[in-house]
Amino acid sequence: xxxxxxxxxxxxxxxxxxxxxxxxxxxxxxxxxxxxxxxxxxxxxxxxxxxxxxxxxxxxxxxxxxxxxxxxxxxxxxxxxxxxxxxxxxxxxxxxxxxxxxxxxxxxxxxxxxxxxxxxxxxxxxxxxxxxxxxxxxxxxxxxxxxxxxxxxxxxxxxxxxxxxxxxxxxxxxxxxxxxxxxxxxxxxxxxxxxxxxxxxxxxxxxxxxxxxxxxxxxxxxxxxxxxxxxxxxxxxxxxxxxxxxxxxxxxxxxxxxxxxxxxxxxxxxxxxxxxxxxxxxxxxxxxxxxxxxxxxxxxxxxxxxxxxxxxxxxxxxxxxxxxxxxxxxxxxxxxxxxxxxxxxxxxxxxxxxxxxxxxxxxxxxxxxxxxxxxxxxxxxxxxxxxxxxxxxxxxxxxxxxxxxx
Length: 406
Fold this sequence. Notes:
Blueprint: E1 2-4, E2 6-7, E3 11-13, E4 31-36, E5 42-47, E6 53-60, H1 74-81, H2 86-89, H3 92-101, E7 104-109, E8 114-121, H4 126-137, H5 145-161, H6 169-180, H7 194-199, H8 202-212, E9 218-224, H9 228-239, E10 275-281, H10 289-307, E11 312-313, E12 317-318, E13 323-329, H11 334-345, H12 352-365, H13 375-385, H14 392-400
Parallel strand pairs: 5-9
Antiparallel strand pairs: 1-3, 2-10, 4-5, 6-8, 6-9, 7-8, 10-13, 11-13, 12-13
């Protein structure tokens, strides 16, 4: 029996027994092509002829889990500091095309990877590919003290804007230290701490760039109504001359199961007291994490009904070595929450509504061209965190065949 520790809560999850239910993967199948350039850059294409747009993403196999103990927050800071693409965007036609065709853009830093995202009409994928290639190939020396100062101020503003929200670093940092231990790569908040960020130098940022952002540590992900052969040709054209650099295969410390729960009281500046419940979860490659997701969602609904207030999902994550599932309770005290959880866990629930809703959500995400909770995220994480671009199918099957016992 595996036991995953919680803050203010304790849940035991047994390995799923064999089930007789059958699963048809056909409705969830995606047209996926993977290839690799001579310099090691991975090209992942998810083709869909039924849409008019496309997303272009650049993934780097580097995240907050790769930081040293003295530089928490560096990966996220560098997401903001990665140089721009002046050569590509300076010509007036390109600048006008960028303004016309950019439908959405963003970036994110996770525990195991960092990515940049752009959504454009499917006929306009070359410009964002060229932009990402120039940004990635910039000289580390082009990052100046002024660049670091400006982007550090942006991150500090994110700290201020997060106060009292589910991703508040004042809560996420201590919570992760309790869940994973301060020595584990996941044992701190992705955004880091203001004290450590303030101590970073321009040379620290340049060194990070040199070490982690070579072609062999990068993946180009294009999803939409595109021709895979054309995408590979464009990748060779714009990324082919970039140095391979060093590849960093995932080799993170495993998350050791624990047999007890822990409580943590924090004093943070917010309008009213709240309670956070957090559980450690299995690694991305372990399909049983879907049963954890179903169990936590079932608990969320039952807590909402019992407490008569809206219990919401917090800022959890799933990583190569494990993850966290989080619930936010705007009302109720720890002892009451413990009583409710104990009563819930001694009964046999009707999981059908939760299972069906989760299956519908995942099906919708696999059709979504957006930045998060999208087909690109599911397929990209499968390839990088489980070594299989179609690993998402095992996750879908686990949901579809879940039982009250599992």
